[in-house]
Amino acid sequence: xxxxxxxxxxxxxxxxxxxxxxxxxxxxxxxxxxxxxxxxxxxxxxxxxxxxxxxxxxxxxxxxxxxxxxxxxxxxxxxxxxxxxxxxxxxxxxxxxxxxxxxxxxxxxxxxxxxxxxxxxxxxxxxxxxxxxxxxxxxxxxxxxxxxxxxxxx
Length: 154
Hints:
Blueprint: H1 32-39, E1 44-48, E2 54-55, E3 70-74, E4 78-87, E5 101-108, E6 113-118, E7 131-138, E8 144-150
Antiparallel strand pairs: 1-2, 1-3, 4-5, 4-7, 5-6, 7-8
């Protein structure tokens, strides 16, 4: 008889050995500040030290001037809706259990455009240019992600 294997603790999201799902981010040393801030309810952007433009998604170089002199900056959390689509069917975990949901592109107050989800707003109430604010959702996988909801102030 073969002895049972020793119990190995399951790694937390982003830790070495964690198995990502289709929608689970893979944090590394560079993106860890972004995901840690999201878990604290803060949205971070990168701002270039050379051309001073903000960008999102986080990357190690500026997509405008290619400088590697980027710095983390806390975003205001304000945005306006650029476009959206209501997704009625998605077979990939964890999305299937959340349909319908509103996939969206928003223009952040700091300038960058961001892909996200709009929550707690009926599709019939959505309008291009509507004011949004960031909120955070923690999924079953333990990751906290920024999503957006309506707000009265732009």
